[in-house]
What does this fold into?
Amino acid sequence: MMNVLIIGANGFTGRRLLETLSDKGEYNIYGMSLSADIAPSEGYKFLQSDMTNYESVKDIFKKIVPDVVINCAAISVPDFCENNKEIADSVNYHSVCKIADLCNLYGARFIQLSTDFVFDGQKSSPYTEEDIPKPVNYYGETKLLAEKYIAAYSNNYAIARVIVVYGKRYSGQHGNIVQLVYDKLSAGESINVVNDQWRSPLFVDDAAKAIESLVKTDKNGIFHLSGDDIASISEIAYKVATLMNLNSDLIKSVSTLEMQDKIKRPSYSALSNSKIKSDFLFQPVSLDEGILLTLGG
It folds into this structure.
């Protein structure tokens, strides 16, 4: 069986991937995270380590000799990255380069999760893998630097750009737009959501399935992982309210300008999933279905 190392295994996508691959019984799964396992179970081995500690990561490679390494870890909050550039560089770029080099050394396939934020949002149709990236914030810049390094120096790799991944979360994990809106409205609290930023949200189970497809192939390149539905952030919020019979009057639909966000974000960053569909018969659930699966409706 293949030895698969998942870095960032306590994160939202990393955790679902850890469970999905472990349940199959087809792989020897190793989860790695800076913190202890947030939901221990059988089926995998968990390693607590800092991905920016090269010597520690090198020891893990030597110990398990991975066939595939999937990096789900990142500093993904644009505001934090903008204000803490050295930390963002260390996690999102420099450590990724070193992991890519170790993958080459051990002959392992490297799958790097990236983001729609490598684009500037000036397009009015879904971005394809052939479109030229142009980040508008430092988070996007660090992720693009990592992409460029992997594409230039990795022997066996896939870059999986994901977008607005949502689904059920574990205690201690960061929220996602669907869960956040539901929690706020259920508590009778108002929430401000932007109405002029459009995305193509991806259900977390679909993200895990698509990434497994990249594990099983030796195709190199960039792959866009996204849902079929394109919606503004406010439209997603209203869908949650409608499907879960919550008070939509608590939703305050505002423009990006009105939100007064100091960090620029792409206005339109929907991703085309045509390539992943064509190559691997990927079929994501609809946004409505994903919301219901997330919230148990």
Summary: Residues 138 and 175 are 22 Å apart (CA to CA). The longest strand covers residues 27-33. The domain at 2-167+203-229+269-284 is CATH 3.40.50.720 (Rossmann fold).
